[in-house]
Amino acid sequence: MTWDPTQIGDLRGRTYLITGANGGIGYFAADQLLRAGADVIVAGRNPAKLDDAISALSASAKVPAAGIGKLRIDTSSIESSTKAAAEITGRGIELDGLILNAGLVHGPKTRTVTPEGHELFFATNILGHFAFVGSILDSLTGAAPHIVWLGSSTAIKGEYSFTDPELADAAAEYKPMKVYAHSKAATTMVGAEAARRFAKAGSPIASVIAHPGYALGGRGPVVPGINEPTLKERIVDTLQAPFSQTKELGAHALVRAAVDPQVTGGEFVGPKGYKGPTQIGEAPRYATDQAAADRLWDYLEKATGVIWP
């Protein structure tokens, strides 16, 4: 079935939090949820950009800006992520879903560590989110809450043992896109393992992985202050049209993973390949490697200091 976010029903009374919602795919996911009547908390590291996103979302979805929540979080920092979680729990916010969209795609050309001592891609794309989610699980109180982890078409295939999660031993062979794919494979593995753990515990929480395909800003609608591709970017992105799609279409996967009752946990939601209709499929084969999943989970708990209940 082709997924149409304009026909997802009435989401009034539900609340979703989206990290990295101040731009790109996260912004369009927020827009689609707001149009369906949901309450949305936009989260990101730059307060000014969050304010710009709230203004644009308010105008687009025709909802009061005061009704769109805001949360500052820098997922490259474990400290920032746990502080953001404490703010959510401290405010007594109840959530029906999390969309963990924030991430680093185009990073430094050489291996870089954060002030906390973690490899930058790994910290931003998985460590911060793991710490954040593990600290606010009690806030997921909806009838069937969904946690959506953002995977990538670059990490659909491959073998990932996670014996060296932050690639410290591979620093001499550092290639940014390979490191990015590795971090997304870790995200996929965590999403699948969380689904198994929730199911074993009898929890109503569904953990699912979504991927937007190859989504480009230059092919999508112009949103002042949010998506303003240059002429060169539009030309380059248009030339890639045969194997890409807009970020607006890419957001369909995130939204479906968050709200579709057919998604029950552990699935891989997104187009088949780089573009196309959003489908519900199985997670990549490597995500079923229980030994690798256990190694990664243990590493994440030790690295973040957050033990999931």
TrEMBL record:
Pfam families: adh_short (PF00106). Keywords: Oxidoreductase. Residues 14-218 form the Ketoreductase domain. One of its GO terms (molecular function) is oxidoreductase activity. InterPro entries: KR_dom, NAD(P)-bd_dom_sf, SDR_fam. Belongs to the short-chain dehydrogenases/reductases (SDR) family. This is Putative oxidoreductase. It comes from Gordonia amarae NBRC 15530.
